[in-house]
Amino acid sequence: MTDMPAHVHEFDWPDRVVIGTVGRPGARTFYLQARTGARIVSIALEKEQSALLAQKVDEVLDQLRTVEGNRYSVPISTPVELADNDPLEDVQEQFRAGTIGIGWDPSTAQLIIEAHPLPEGDDLELDEDPAAGSEMLRVRMPVGTARAFTQRTREIVDAGRPLCTLCGHPIDPDGHTCILPEF
Questions:
Q1: % helix / strand / coil in the chain, to the nearest 5?
Q2: What is each CA distance from 138 to 77, 101, 182, in whole angstroms?
Q3: DSSP SS3 for 66
Q4: Could you give the CA distance from residue 40 to residue 17 in angstroms, rounded to a whole number?
């Protein structure tokens, strides 16, 4: 049996849950931010984690749509009233995400995202649970909010530096040295 994290930042019906960035393209930090009332928690993510999270959430939602009768009323696309394009609020990094899990609670028709911090140092035992004794973020969101979350996340990820049409590497705002592949 594994220990529960010492502190769980839990958001059961958040007012807001988004991924956003701080910084300019090429030097952005991605954050998963949840807010209920005045309580805000922001955790840092890698760009790749953000993209993969959006992809996996969409996969879960698409799979739920195939359930006979679709009693969860999973929308195909983002309901317009749930679109959120506002900037992040008062970012104070709680931790940097390591392991991220996705779940489903059929009793509330909510998608669940759980994020655990990166382990500190290289002193973890092989059988030690990296989440034990630390903190975690748990966010539960209804299916429409989850669709809006994935759309915004994809837009944020795609808003990075443009790619060079010759070499495929990102073009920095201050210039680009094209590295053509050798044949």
A1: 20, 35, 45
A2: 24, 9, 47
A3: coil
A4: 10
**What 3-state class would DSSP assign to 70?**
coil
Residue with tokens 């915004």: 152
Please tell me the distance from the alpha carbon of residue 17 to that of residue 143, in angstroms, as a whole number: 12
Strand order through the sheet with 7-11:
7-11, 135-142, 110-117, 93-105, 39-45, 29-36, 16-22
* Residue with token string 């973020």: 137
Residue 23 Rama label (left phi>0; alpha psi -120 to 50; beta): left
DSSP H helical ranges for the chain: 47-65, 143-158
162-181 as b/e, with b when 16 or more CB fall inside 10 Å? eeeeeeeeebeeeebeeeee
| Cα separation of the two ends of the chain | 54
pLDDT in tens, 76-127: 888 888 889 899 999 999 999 999 999 999 889 899 999 999 987 654 444 4
Nearest partner of 64 among 112, 100, 10, judged by Cα:
112
CB 33 within 8 A of CB 103: no
